[in-house]
């Protein structure tokens, strides 16, 4: 019944607010996102085929300032459109196209204070949940590398933080220390090994932030959620044509995007694997991603960024593990769990990856530096 009420509300009120082209046909749920509610909206036109748009209800409990959010996205996509057009590409296909409301706004706020936005649908392309076809991981690396390259001259300091301190590893460590000290669930005594693992790597947490503050590495536009399913892949070529889900686009470091890609994509096992003997970083997948990413972004990176690119994989994996362990100590209040000790299992998997990366760091650095032209 709830879905029917929502659908009625969308078709009766929300759809009519946007500059959609044609006669409304129908609406259907779209994708597997966990944050926003997403729909495909179909419109009939007289002399050309029907057209689809993407309509999203923004989750304002997480993305608390939709105006700031949409201004970020507008600025970045306008910049990308200009660069794509200069290169002779198709901006309607290679970046998100915001469809404004009929009164020229970036989003619509309905009578229930819910906020909606719309994009042009990118046809003949697919979002994959896993690298089920050969070359997809490499092509995703190229797509995120190209995203970095095209935005390398964007004034990152003009962007707002849509989620405060999202990749601030120092702040994540402070939250961890607080969780250990308060020990509100009485769980700290059973995870001393994991707690000591994190504490032994405290100094790693501040390296990137210190370099940004000292201006030894540039502040860059970063996507901050560089999973495979945030890229539209062309159905014919399997090339990554468009980076989507720009909600977490913020000022940051290239390390955030590269490091998290390796954490998630080069792992041999699921994020919550309980058999740690199955968990390691696949050096071949690491090499594949490095080659794809640097084939596009390489010319825009500084030597210092090259030197720490491999380290960033370890740092972002450590940060994620810290977040899982912190949530476990606090009573599993942030990440959804599906079994007892789920967040602890996730933390242990990340820490096993960190340890494995430390063993392979020399090899990882050699792979990265072999591509350095600076």
Automatic annotation (TrEMBL):
Q: What is this protein called?
A: Phosphotransferase enzyme family protein
Q: Does the keyword Transferase apply?
A: yes
Q: Which UniProt keywords apply?
A: Transferase
Which Gene3D superfamilies does the UniProt record give?
3.90.1200.10
Q: Which InterPro entries match?
A: Aminoglycoside_PTrfase, Kinase-like_dom_sf, Pseudomonas-type_ThrB
Recorded hits in SUPFAM superfamilies, A to Z, give: Protein kinase-like (PK-like)
Q: Where is the Aminoglycoside phosphotransferase domain?
A: 27-264
Q: Which residues cross the membrane?
A: none
Origin species, per record, is: Anaerocolumna aminovalerica
Molecular function in Gene Ontology: transferase activity
* Keyword Mitochondrion part of the UniProt annotation: no
